[in-house]
Write a structure and sequence with these properties.
Elements lengths: L6 E4 L9 H18 L1 H6 L2 H14 L7 H15 L7 H12 L8 H11 L2 E5 L5 H4 L7 E4 H4 L6 H11 L6 E5 L2 H10 L3 E5 L15 E3 L2 H10 L7
Parallel strand pairs: 1-2, 1-4, 2-3, 4-5, 5-6
Helix pairs in contact: 1-5, 3-4, 4-5, 6-11
Organism: Stenotrophomonas oahuensis
InterPro entries: HAD-like_sf (IPR036412), HAD-SF_hydro_IA (IPR006439), HAD_sf (IPR023214), S-2-haloacid_dehalogenase (IPR051540)
Protein name: HAD-IA family hydrolase
């Protein structure tokens, strides 16, 4: 399939890097931090209990699902309060979390493929997560980063895709959104009028009853190769 692509919007977690190892590291880093700075909190909330508290906070606060940083602070605040610790520890604990959150290990194909893609068309990061591309060291590949917290709504809301297109100065029909999640990334983007590319690293089955992705690859290299093979499709 060949169609014009004037810009790309790109998901981050589980598209450029796997999130599961990051989540496991965060759990351990926070527990170690609490052991040093608030032993009572660490005792009341070992790793499994802190994870359960975080999951409950997510379930109980759907109005904050666009703001994962806000939800993390809410979880840390509750843990500190319940264990009798000072809330002066809230922001230092959050910073310990955030440092670990931005220690990412990209998929083996991702950085080279990202550089190849960004050399052809402008790329904007559009994510529901709270990664910081500056901290990670990948911001130079992107025109900008648009997070759901900054925007005020999370994918698959059409508004976040449209806001990215507006900042790119490109009509949605000429923007290709690339991501791993069938609904939040591909279906959400296509229903907002963008093209959709599914990065399906785990060989999942596509289950949407009526839409099919415009493109599908098992690595980001597949997309870079497609752009190379279709030079007329990529219009900077």
């Amino acid at each position: 399939m060949n169609f014009p692509v004037q810009a790309i919007t790109l998901d981050l977690d589980d598209t450029l890097w796997p999130f599961a190892p990051i989540g496991a590291r965060i759990d351990q880093v926070l527990h170690t931090w609490m052991l040093e700075h608030s032993p009572a909190t660490a005792e009341m909330y070992p790793v499994a209990a802190m994870r359960e508290l975080r999951e409950r906070s997510f379930r109980d606060n759907p109005h904050l699902h666009y703001d994962l940083s806000g939800l993390r602070r809410l979880t840390l605040r509750e843990a500190l309060e319940n264990s009798g610790a000072s809330l002066d520890l809230l922001e230092p604990a959050y910073e310990a979390f955030y440092a670990a959150r931005n220690q990412v290990e990209c998929y083996p194909d991702a950085i080279d493929a990202l550089a190849r893609i960004a050399a052809r068309v402008p790329v904007a990061a559009v994510s529901n997560g709270n990664a910081d591309l500056e901290r990670i060291g990948l911001a130079h590949h992107f025109a900008f980063q648009l997070g759901s917290r900054e925007h005020g709504a999370a994918k698959p809301a059409a508004s976040i895709f449209h806001a990215a297109c507006e900042r790119l100065g490109v009509a949605p029909t000429h923007v290709l959104h690339v991501g791993d999640h069938m609904d939040m990334d591909v279906v959400g983007a296509m229903e907002a009028g963008l093209r959709g590319c599914w990065i399906n690293r785990e060989a999942h089955t596509w289950t949407h009853p009526s839409l099919q992705p415009d493109l599908q690859f098992d690595t980001l290299t597949g997309l870079a190769d497609w752009l190379d093979a279709n030079p007329g499709a990529a219009r900077a």
